[in-house]
Amino acid sequence: MSRKKLWLSWSSGKDSAWALHVLRQQGEYEVVGLLTTLNGEAGRVAMHAVRDALLDAQASAAGLPVHKVMLPAPCPNEIYEQRMTAALDVARAEGIAAIAFGDLFLEDVRRYREERMAGTGIAALFPLWAVPTPALAREMVRAGLVAHLTCIDPRKLPRAFAGRLFDDALVDDLPTDIDPCGENGEFHSFASAGPMFRHAVAVRPGEVVERDGFVFADLLPA
After folding, report:
1. How many other β-carbons are positioned within 10 Å of the β-carbon of residue 12?
2. Closest by alpha carbon to 105, among 136, 144, 141?
3. Are 14 and 145 in contact (CB under 8 A)?
4. What is the residue extent of each domain of the chain?
5. Helices (H), 4-76
6. Core-most of 25, 64, 144, 168, by most CB within 10 Å?
7. What are the beta bridge partners of residue 94?
């Protein structure tokens, strides 16, 4: 009996990457594609500011096609919803039974996703939901996941965290009021290696800039 097909909502960060690993271990669904929103003008993954070329390299390392939803910047919510609806139409036409998300505990985010998916015939899955984030962060590191912080909120973290490797030392250095996985928007990341990839994505650090109230650490293909 063939498994149901699934797309994974892919931000390019560590939580998306770990969700891919978990889904493959569970084996109930076959992950057949990634779904990513990009700033169409900048050619970068939305919020994480990861270059399109690195997203492509990541998808290749994961052995999966990436379905890109191009968004204007700024993007009105109605435009976002229109383009995501079009993406869901493509998913349905390709026989996709579910879309998985790497959300961890934000109830309002999960509720929004479930409301948007209602009536589409495509299920919303949350394979990492309610896993305690202090333990989850350490588990990712132990399993060999490699990620760099590409965006931080300087209202919550010092600028020096931008570009740092997500490892035990970083988790140790986080202030006690910061979620170890950055689930409250404290930081975003780019995953370059780990058990979900067939090979590592080689990257090197670029410039660090402050824009629109956030600090972004660029990553370049190495």
Report:
1. 31
2. 136
3. yes
4. 4-221
5. 14-26, 52-62
6. 64
7. none
Whose CA is closest to 52, among 90, 80, 12? Answer: 12
CATH class of 4-221: alpha beta
The 10s digit of each residue's pLDDT in 168-181 is: 999 999 999 999 99
Q: What is the pLDDT of residues 60-94, one digit of tens each?
A: 999 999 999 999 988 899 999 999 999 999 999 99
- The helix/strand/coil state of 167 is coil
- Tokens representing 78 are 């109605």
**Per-residue pLDDT band at 1 (split at 50, 70, 90):** low
* CA pseudo-torsion sign 42, 43, 46, 51: negative
Q: Round to whole Å and give the CA distance between 105 and 35.
A: 21
Q: How far apart are CA 4 and CA 51, in angstroms?
A: 31
What are the helix (H) ranges across the chain?
14-26, 52-62, 77-93, 107-117, 133-142, 168-173
User: What pLDDT shows up at residue 26?
Assistant: 94
What does pTM read for this prediction?
A: 0.96
Instruction: Name every residue whose Cβ is closer than 8 Å to that of residue 67 and which is 6 or more positions away in sequence.
Output: 7, 33, 34, 35, 36, 87, 90, 91
